[in-house]
């Protein structure tokens, strides 16, 4: 708990910095969606800046999406650095670099959206993350999950409990604190810091 409290203000500060600088940092992205050298810390640790998820799941309006399958192929693997901390990630290989100017603009918009949605992941993973072991104590209830690493100070707390309902809508907590521990891992793994304290609104029947 003490380490998380110490890390928390740095996490919040870095998140704000990344929100502001993401659009500029992405100008240095290569065709495969990788940021170079030190700028790689702005990138999500588990994906490139060209994930298929944005276009294939239509997370933006159609007129802002480009033909991702024409230009990219996605693979799942690891790097020497990630292998040391028991993690894998997605890679996007450019198979057709013949983009029109409008396609490049749309790709850039998709990249900005992706890093805005998943802001500061590199910093949260490499700088402010912790190594968690498979020796976990997990407590589940209807709306909460508590995880405690029995061999380190890694822990997590998720809460989606309802607060109140009105006119068919329910306001719920949407909290995730501690570190994002892989509870299915059989080896030591790196876990990025989590600092989400938010709310979510749900309509009855959805």
Give the arrangement of secondary structure elements.
Blueprint: H1 2-25, H2 52-56, H3 68-71, E1 72-77, H4 80-84, E2 89-94, H5 101-117, H6 121-127, E3 130-132, E4 136-140, E5 144-149, E6 155-159, E7 162-166, E8 169-179, E9 189-191, E10 193-203
Antiparallel strand pairs: 1-2, 3-9, 4-5, 5-6, 6-8, 7-8, 8-10
Helix pairs in contact: 1-5
Short recap of the structure:
With 206 residues, the chain is α+β, with helices and mostly antiparallel strands. It has helices at residues 2-25, 52-56, 68-71, 80-84, 101-117, 121-127, and strands at residues 72-77, 89-94, 130-132, 136-140, 144-149, 155-159, 162-166, 169-179, 189-191, 193-203. It has 2 domains: 2-127, no CATH class; 130-203, no CATH class.
Q: In words, what does this structure look like?
A:
This protein has about 210 residues and is α+β, with helices and mostly antiparallel strands. The model has no long low-confidence stretch (mean pLDDT about 95). The strands form 3 sheets. Strands 4, 5, 6, 7, 8 and 10 form a 6-stranded antiparallel sheet that branches. It has a two-stranded antiparallel sheet with strand order 1-2. About 30% of the residues lie in helices and about 30% in strands. It contains 6 helices and 10 strands, in the order H-H-H-E-H-E-H-H-E-E-E-E-E-E-E-E. The chain is globular. It folds into 2 domains: about 1-125, no CATH class; about 130-205, no CATH class. Helix 1 (about 1-25) packs antiparallel against helix 5 (about 100-115).
């Amino acid at each position: 708990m003490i380490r998380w409290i110490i890390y928390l203000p740095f996490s919040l500060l870095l998140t704000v910095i990344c929100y502001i600088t993401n659009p500029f940092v992405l100008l240095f992205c290569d065709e495969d969606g990788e940021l170079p050298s030190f700028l790689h810390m702005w990138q999500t640790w588990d994906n490139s800046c060209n994930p298929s998820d944005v276009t294939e799941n239509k997370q933006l309006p159609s007129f802002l999406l480009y033909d991702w399958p024409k230009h990219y192929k996605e693979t799942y693997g690891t790097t020497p650095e990630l292998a040391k901390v028991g993690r894998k990630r997605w890679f996007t290989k450019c198979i057709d670099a013949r983009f029109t100017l409008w396609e490049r603009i749309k790709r850039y918009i998709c990249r900005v959206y992706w890093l805005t949605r998943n802001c500061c992941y590199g910093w949260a993973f490499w700088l402010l993350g912790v190594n968690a072991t498979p020796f976990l104590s997990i407590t589940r209830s209807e709306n909460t999950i508590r995880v405690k690493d029995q061999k380190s100070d890694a822990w997590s707390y998720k809460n989606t409990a309802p607060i109140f309902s009105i006119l068919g809508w329910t306001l719920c907590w949407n909290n995730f604190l501690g570190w994002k521990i892989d509870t299915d891992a059989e080896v030591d793994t790196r876990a990025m810091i989590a600092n989400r304290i938010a709310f979510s609104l749900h309509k009855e029947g959805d």
